[in-house]
Design the sequence.
């Protein structure tokens, strides 16, 4: 299950369907009319089957888009949003005969990380939000960058924005095992932050700082962005010199304008996995034979015959195992990119075509 990140995605899709090009599609259906239209689509029109694809000779799958933008999912009544998501899942179960459904992007947090789905008596199939592999792949990216940039992690500070969230929490716990000098955790709710700080004290003995102000990430050498905020939460002035930023969020938490203003900082797309030999038949942003870790976990679960639900808070023990499980079926962390443009790692430096990256829309 996916959804348009922003209203412009709807216009792009219309342009492709009418064969007039994405730019003309966005002119034909600009933001305001696009948001109004998809909000008022009734019943079966509230979601669309984007593609049917095959997983080698082992399975087949469908990509279904719930027709609400990320902003709409965050601002419309939760009952309305959940009904539309459930309508799409029931269609997949009852009409397409799928054996498992994966919740992508905001379809997970808007259903209490899938709990509202599995508690619906009409749902008879296992559900996964895929965030165990999202977290594990993000940690793997950090490890690769630490090695490539020759970072002395014991002298470094790691910040996680959205630290107690569905992806932020397991990433925080797993990254604490690298033993950085200091960890910074941010989130909008002080009560949850203080509770999370106490929990992290069980895993990490170094310095911990918590704040509901994201500007504190300016102290961090490595920044992990995992929030469900609509739009960028990072401005050029709140990044440390030569900071590495892993943007796990969809929609992105850091815009290309920040990359342009801060050429010393390195932004990396988080949560991309290679799925060699699989053509999803629908372009979602990642490069060819690459997709989001949450979808990869769903595909992996079907291949391995996993019949369990993976919803709610991520089991950190499972998150530590799931990357190895993915590798066992031929999936692994994709080559690092910035806005889907390649980042080439050579010895102790990271090179990538910044001009090409900045030319790609957020």
Sequence:
């Amino acid at each position: 299950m996916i959804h348009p990140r922003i209203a412009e995605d709807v216009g792009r899709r219309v342009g492709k369907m009418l064969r007039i090009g994405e730019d003309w599609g966005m002119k034909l259906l600009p933001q305001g009319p696009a948001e109004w239209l998809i909000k008022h689509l009734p019943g079966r029109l509230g979601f669309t089957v984007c593609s049917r694809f095959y997983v080698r000779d082992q399975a087949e799958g469908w990509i279904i888009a719930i027709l609400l933008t990320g902003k709409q999912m965050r601002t419309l009544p939760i009952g309305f949003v959940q009904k539309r998501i459930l309508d799409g899942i029931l269609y997949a179960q009852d009409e397409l005969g799928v054996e498992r459904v994966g919740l992508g992007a905001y379809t997970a947090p808007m259903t209490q990380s899938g709990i509202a789905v599995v508690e619906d008596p009409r749902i008879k199939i296992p559900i996964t939000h895929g965030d165990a592999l999202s977290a594990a792949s993000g940690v793997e990216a950090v490890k690769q960058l630490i090695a490539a940039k020759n970072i002395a992690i014991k002298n470094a500070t790691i910040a996680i924005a959205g630290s107690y969230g569905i992806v932020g929490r397991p990433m925080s716990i797993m990254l604490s095992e690298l033993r950085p000098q200091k960890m910074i955790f941010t989130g909008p709710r002080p009560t949850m932050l203080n509770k999370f700080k106490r929990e992290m004290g069980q895993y990490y003995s170094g310095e911990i700082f918590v704040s509901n102000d994201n500007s504190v990430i300016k102290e961090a050498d490595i920044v992990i962005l995992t929030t469900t905020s609509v739009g960028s939460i990072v401005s050029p002035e709140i990044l440390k010199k030569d900071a590495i930023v892993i943007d796990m969020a969809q929609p992105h938490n850091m815009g290309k304008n920040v990359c342009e203003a801060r050429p010393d900082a390195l932004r990396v797309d988080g949560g991309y996995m290679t799925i060699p030999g699989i053509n999803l038949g629908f372009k979602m942003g990642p490069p060819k034979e690459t997709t989001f870790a949450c979808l990869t976990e769903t595909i992996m679960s079907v291949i391995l015959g996993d019949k369990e639900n993976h919803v709610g808070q991520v089991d950190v023990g499972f998150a530590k195992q799931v990357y190895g499980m993915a590798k066992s079926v031929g999936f692994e962390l994709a080559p690092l990119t910035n806005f889907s443009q390649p980042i080439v790692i050579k010895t102790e430096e990271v090179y990538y075509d910044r001009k090409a990256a900045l030319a790609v829309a957020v």
Summary: Residues 347-362 have pLDDT under 50 and may be disordered. The CA atoms of residues 52 and 157 lie 43 Å apart. The two ends are 21 Å apart (CA to CA).
